[in-house]
Amino acid sequence: MRIALFVTCLVDLIRPSVGFAAVRLLEQAGCEVHVPRGQTCCGQPAYNSGDKATARALALATIAALRGYDHVVVPSGSCGGMIKTHYPELLADQPEHAQAARELAARTHELTSFLVDVLKLERVEARASRRVAYHDSCSGLRELKVKAQPRKLLGSIAGTELVELPGAEQCCGFGGTFCVKYGEISDAIVGRKTAEIAASGADTLAAGDLGCLLNIAGKLAREGSTIEVRHVAELLAGMTETPAIGRPKREA
């Protein structure tokens, strides 16, 4: 099975370890993984800002880069939601591209959804003594119906206890450009999130969207918290040598 990994901008530029973890998980599951060189941004920032011309151009470039693979896997509910939900809407009035957008959407999956729903993976090989709370990203949950899948796999990590956040489905306040336009509101929202994380007794916060994780990690750091923040792929792959998100790099 030939898989195209759509890495995402944030993973590529800020947290490449997430991409390597996704590759490890997919290869362990028997997939032949490719990372197409032609991929860039999925176009979501432009789309959310009303710049549909730029969003369409990026969508067409992405469709071309991901053509010919059995499935496309994305370690992000946000970017996955853009490709799967919004590309067909964005290109619906362009008959020459609409079918290609629908075809790509049909074979695009968020990482944990692909592992559980398509590959029927029951457990992972990782082992770790952790108490993990999971945050549901808005796009992953509402656009892609990703909820049970990451919890199933996290719960299979030997030695790991999964605890449920009371507000797991509530927004972290990131929202892409929302956190820039409405900083005070965003800070208040993420403050509620970090309070719930602290109250849960978890020592690790996991999620499937790097934007959410960066926002939450930043707030936890400003509060002086010792709670680790990690992408779910890093935990599932057992790749936690890299410092947690928001933590300084270790001295060589």
Number of helices: 13
Uncertain regions spanning at least 5 consecutive residues? none
> What is the distance, rounded to the nearest whole angstrom, between the alpha carbons of the first and last residues?
39 Å
Count of distinct structural domains: 2
Could you tell me the CATH topology label of the largest domain. Rossmann fold
* Mean model confidence by pLDDT: 95
Assembly type of the shown chains?
single chain
Side by side, the strands of the main sheet go 2-1-3-4
Summarize the main sheet.
4 strands, parallel
* CATH class category name of the largest domain: Alpha Beta
Query: Structural class from helices and strands?
Result: alpha/beta
CATH architecture of the largest domain: 3-Layer(aba) Sandwich
- SSE run: EHHEHHEHHEHEHHEHHEHEH
Radius of gyration: 18 Å
Helix content: 40-55%
How many beta-strand runs?
Answer: 8
What does this structure look like?
By secondary structure, the protein is an alpha/beta fold. The protein folds into two domains: 2-117, Rossmann fold; 123-237, Rossmann fold (3-Layer(aba) Sandwich). It has helices at residues 9-13, 16-28, 44-48, 52-65, 77-90, 95-106, 111-118, 138-144, 148-154, 178-181, 183-200, 210-222, 232-237; strands at residues 2-5, 32-34, 71-74, 108-110, 127-134, 158-163, 204-207, 228-231. Helix 11 crosses helix 12. The protein is globular and about 55 Å long. It starts with a strand and ends in a 15-residue tail after the last helix.
